[in-house]
Amino acid sequence: MSIKTLRKRIALVAVSALGVGLLSVAPASAAAGASAIFSDEYTVASTYAAGANEGVCYASDASTTTYTADAVATAAQNAANKVEMTTTGKLKFTANSQSGIAATSDYLAFTITGPAIWDSFTANSVPATPSLNNAQKELKFTFATDNTRKPADAVFLKPTGAGAITVEMSYYDASGDAGTETVTVKVWNITAKTACAAQSPSLADSYVAAVGFSARTTAITSSNDASGATTTTNGESIYIRTDIYDANGVAVPGVAATGTVTAEVTGGLVIGENNTIGTVNNVWTVSKAVYFRITQGTANTPQTGTVTVKINGVVVGTKTVTITGPVAKIEVSSPVNVRIGQTQSAANYEMLDSAGNKLAVAVDGYATLTDAQAKIATAGSSTTTPAPSTATKGVVSLNCSGSTGGLVKGLQLKEVVSATVTVLSAPFDIQCGSNTAATYTASLDKASYVPGDIATLTITAKDPYGNPVSDDTVLGSSSAGEAVAISGSNMTAVTAPTNADTFTGGKKTYKFIVGATEGSYNLVVDLDKWTTVTYNQAALTVPYTIKASTASVSTNEVLAAIVKLIATINKQIRQLQKQLRR
Q: What CATH architecture is 203-323?
């Protein structure tokens, strides 16, 4: 027997004794070209098989029938091919059904990087010559004839120590489109450990989140709370979902690991497991995937507390939750002037509980109007419900049903909380007025300004009945002879007046930047739409003065001062000359 033949036989014996190992290395880049084998034709699994697949705690194989144009796995698919196993185990790469022909002299190679070797393979009838290279880290099958491309039913990897291992399956095409070429078809990332982390709770990979009622039994994959789920209304419940995962992102079943998951809550709230309500203890021991129900410890009382979830006493996550109480206060703001004969938005309001939490509750309406109030207006209703989550205030309307308007004093909003409790707002006033500016006046905030000052002009308008005009009264219009005209020398409007501007509370203000030229001037205010003979209203002039804070000196005054100074100097010189002659 020749030395060459002996070496071949030794190589074949070594190949048949190959062992499976752990892999975990960055995937190699695929070369350009096409592969005669698809990436899903060899896969791994965690299913135990004596002598074949042992100590495999976790296996994720992104096998798919969708590949690139070259039939190879994508980078994302390769990254998802993960295995966790013990250093004493064995990993089986199983050949799946396939079709197609591999050409003569093509080969399929399995290459290991990291602490593992090829332990063995299961041969079949495909005429392919196996070879074992690089200290049992490369297993290659070279096709002897054009034949089916599955040269082995299975190959087995055996770890030689703990660490990261990568297995690369590549195909060599002896007659590719661009000549001979090698294509990386698939990559597996394997981690060999002395003991598996699979099915052991991992704090970093476990989650706690507030969820809605309908989602309480659905597993969560992050700690992001559902919108609005950390707050609920009086008498309702909050649900906190907990799911425990291992380091591989696999849910830990309740029987897989020892220890407990506990949850507790502060702030007087009560916590219970699943759909029960805790009434005695604030701590519950539960399975590994569960939801907790949080309720008020004292009925009709606003309560805020912190829910803390732990695994074996170590905190997984915390959530601050609030259950609001019933309405205890109504705050009214921004009352407006409503037009006579109209039902319009009259004021904003907010509903609060005794802790100051804002509530998404529509007010019942107005307290019963007095006779004096009823002569001017008819009670309206809530037209917008407060929405604290978006900082939206409620809106209540009022019908100014009286024909001549007036000030509706002492209105109150009410909320009937129970048969024995009614909440009233503080009294507030609403002005009812016409949207006709029968008369108007104008004034500046100061009589005199220095250059660069900001001047404020206030226009005040009243309706034919002497009421401040309604808030929908415009200052002008685009019709001929109805435009707004406001102007004054050395006055530049910060925001130019427009015809569409409206009064607020019967007033409209404008600001002007004061110029630098000193003098006495008049600001002309002409609201042509309301300048009529009907109400004897004419355009207005408002006087003002611009004067520098330091008095200015004219040229003549400067020259006179110089002449006077020269005369004084000359006088002093003459006096000095007389003294020198003595």
A: Sandwich (2.60)
